[in-house]
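User: Okay, second chain of the day. Same drill as before: sequence in, C-alpha cells out.
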Amino acid sequence: MQDLIPVQVGLLGLGTVGGGTIQVLRRNRDEITRRAGRAIEVTCAAARDLDKPRGLPLDGIAITSDPLTLINDPEIRIVVELIGGVEPARTLVLKAIANGKHVVTANKALIAIHGNEVFQAAQERGVMVAFEAAVCGGIPIIKAIREGLAGNRIEWLAGIINGTGNFILTEMLDKGRDFETVLREAQRLGFAEADPVFDVEGIDAAHKLTILAAIAFGIPLQFDKVYTEGISQITQADIDYAEQLGYRIKHLGIARDAGDAIELRVHPTLVPRRQLLANVMGVMNAVLIKGDAVGQTLYYGAGAGAEPTASAVVADLVDVVRTLTSDPENRVPHLAFQPAALSNRRVAPMDAVATAYYLRMHAVDQPGVLADITRIFGDLRISIEAILQKEPVPGEPHVPIIFLTHRVRERSMNAAIERIEALESVTGRVTRIRLETFA
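Assistant: Same drill. C-alpha cells below.
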C-alpha cells in the first residue's frame, strides 16, 4: 500500500478551509493513507492573492492565480473547490468534471442551486462529486442520512444549521441583549460577515436544507421552493416570553414528509426547553432526524471553522480515493437515491403547512378586547393552548398579550392575523413565531 503512487489533489481556494485541509492531510497522513489505501497529496493550489500570508508551510505545493492550471493538469485526479458562491465555482467545477476529474466541494450555494446540473454532468462523465463539507461543517450529516439511515423512510428532519444565527439567539437569551447589539458582537468575533444577510435572514440555512431534504426524501434540489424567514425581527421580549412559557427560540431548517408533498421551511421556531435542539448553544450546529425504523437521532458538532470543515473535506477525499478503481454504476448515488428513481413529489406551499403558533400583540387595556380576539380564533377554528397577559405599565394604554395555539394550517393563521390587526383595539403588527414540539 505504501508503494502506490499518491493521488494528486488540486485546491481551488487557499483560505481558511483550504489551509485547514492541507494541515489535516499532513498531520494525519499515515492514518489517512491506511484508510484510503493510497497517500493523498495536495500538489497545486489556486489563490487570488499569491502574496497573502497563509500561516502554514506550503512546500511542495505549486501556487497559481489561474485555476485552469490545475483543472487542466492531467496528473491531478481530484479537484477540491473551496471558493464559495455560485460563479466562477460552477464554471470551474463543470470544467473539472468535463476533464474527467473527481470533485470535492464545500460549496452549499453551488450544490443547492446548480447541484442537479453538476450531478448529471458527473454521472455522464463517470466521476464523483462529494459535498459533505457543504452542510454543517464537521458533522458527517450527509453520510449519516445517505448511508447510515438508508434502511429508513425519513419522516422529518429539523436542524440548527447556521452557527451565526444560533450564536445571536443564544447571546440574546443568556445576556439579555438586543439583536443589533449581538449582531455587532458576532461580526467583531468573526462569526458573522460584514454583510450578514445570508446568515440572519436564513438564506445560508435554506441552501443547506435544500441539500438535506433532497438526500432524505429522494427529490431534486429545489432551493427556490424553500420558505425562508430570518431572525432579525426577534426581540428580547419574545426571547423572555418564550422562556416564561417553557420554550426557547431557535432558527431551524425543517423538512417534513407530508404525504402528498414535502415541506421545506426555514424560520424562527419555539422549541420546548426539554427538547435536545433547545439546548444547542453558541455557534454549534445540530440536526434531529426521525426515521421510521430508528426513531429520533441527533447529530451535533461544529458547523464551521478551518479544521472541522477540513475534516469533512478530507473524509470526502478518502471516499473518492477508495472508489477510484470502482465501477461508476456501483458508487453511492450523489443524492442517496438512484438518479432515475428521484421522486417528482411537489413541495408544499407555506400556507398549506400546519404548525402551532406563538403570537404576540399589543392591545388596549379595556374590557371586551380579549373576547374580540378569541372570537376571531373561534370563527376560524383555531384552538388556543395558553394565554399570557402582562400587567399594564402605569401610563401605558396598551398591554402585551401572548397566545400559544394548537396546530393549524398557515392559511387559517394568516386570516386570523389579518382580522386581529384590523381591530381598533390592537396596535401595530402581530408577531408570529411558529412552534414545533417534535414529539
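Residues 306 and 355 are 37 Å apart (CA to CA).

User: Thanks, on to the next one.
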